[in-house]
Amino acid sequence: MLSQIKCRVYILHGEHDSLVPYENALFAKKNLVNEKSVELITLKDEDHFIPWTNYKDIKKVLLQLNG
């Protein structure tokens, strides 16, 4: 159903995610074919818990949604 998404998409994924393989982010990016734009942001040395360990990057992306 990824092809039904038509808005801007930001994917933030930790390179060392122990719960969700990084390949899932690559799959999503490849299959988001009708979106307005898609940006994959890879966070090196990050695990699954990015909102708690790297809040500054999450905040930066969220602020971009408004502009």
Task: Explain the overall architecture.
The protein is of the alpha+beta class and 67 residues long. Helix 1 links the parallel strand 1 (8-14) and strand 2. Strands 1-2 form a two-stranded parallel ribbon. The N and C termini lie far apart (27 Å). The longest helix has 11 residues, at 55-65. Helix content is 36%, strand content 21%. It has one domain (2-57). The protein contains three helices and two strands; from the N terminus they run E-H-E-H-H.
Q: In short, what is this structure?
A:
The chain is an alpha+beta fold and 67 residues long. It is built from three helices and two strands.
Shape: flat
How many domains comprise the coordinates?
1
Which bin fits the share of residues in helices?
Answer: 25-40%
Number of strands: 2
Largest sheet report: 2 strands, parallel
Distance between termini?
27 Å
Short descriptors:
67 residues; alpha+beta; 3 helices; 36% helix; 21% strand
List the helices and strands and how they pair.
Elements: E1 8-14, H1 23-31, E2 37-43, H2 50-53, H3 55-65
Parallel strand pairs: 1-2
